[in-house]
């Protein structure tokens, strides 16, 4: 095991302007429903979807092209490794009551989604293996692998899980 840094991961922030691809695609899908039934949407979800309305078609296409390049770069960067290991989330999930303040909710939500979003944005495969002690807050160890490397990563994950259970 060794610490590594991937250029593709460091470049991901540039894909998030105006909510990124997800917001643009969600806006395109939901725009008519929102016009008729915005009150039926969760306000936090609705605000994220509306970010997509700020993107031009040209901006969306540029972001898609940039993402495609980063996906290829990430796949190449992961080629020498069996798996990348990191926490599934960087903090133990807070209690819902602690997220009542909107700014706390937003910053905590972004932090909790940070690590899994890497695999999602770069079209990698990933899984989370539970690794917490019995009776403690649940935490997971995330393993990430190359694009379409699901079977290989699942086998590695099963081995890691077996070791963690034995050493528990």
From TrEMBL:
Domain of life: Bacteria
PANTHER family: AMIDASE AMID-RELATED, TRANSAMIDASE
Segments forming domain Amidase: 48-154
Organism of this sequence: Paraburkholderia fungorum
Entry-linked Gene3D superfamilies: Amidase signature (AS) domain
Protein name (Swiss-Prot/TrEMBL): Amidase family protein
Annotated SUPFAM superfamilies: Amidase signature (AS) enzymes (SSF75304)
Coiled-coil positions: none
Pfam families linked to this entry: Amidase
GO MF terms held by the record: catalytic activity
């Amino acid at each position: 095991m060794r610490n590594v840094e991937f250029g593709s991961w460091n470049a991901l922030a540039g894909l998030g302007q105006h909510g990124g691809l997800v917001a643009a695609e969600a806006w395109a899908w939901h725009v008519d429903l929102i016009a008729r039934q915005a009150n039926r949407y969760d306000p936090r979800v609705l605000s994220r979807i509306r970010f997509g309305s700020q993107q031009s078609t040209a901006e969306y296409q540029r972001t898609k092209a940039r993402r495609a390049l980063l996906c290829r770069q990430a796949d190449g960067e992961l080629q020498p490794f069996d798996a990348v290991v990191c926490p599934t989330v960087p903090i133990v999930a807070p209690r819902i009551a602690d997220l009542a303040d909107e700014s706390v909710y937003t910053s905590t939500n972004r932090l909790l989604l940070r690590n899994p979003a890497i695999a999602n944005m770069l079209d990698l495969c990933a899984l989370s293996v539970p690794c917490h002690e019995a009776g403690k807050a649940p935490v997971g160890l995330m393993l990430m692998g190359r694009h379409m490397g699901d079977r290989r990563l699942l086998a590695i994950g099963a081995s890691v899980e077996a070791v963690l259970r034995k050493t528990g």
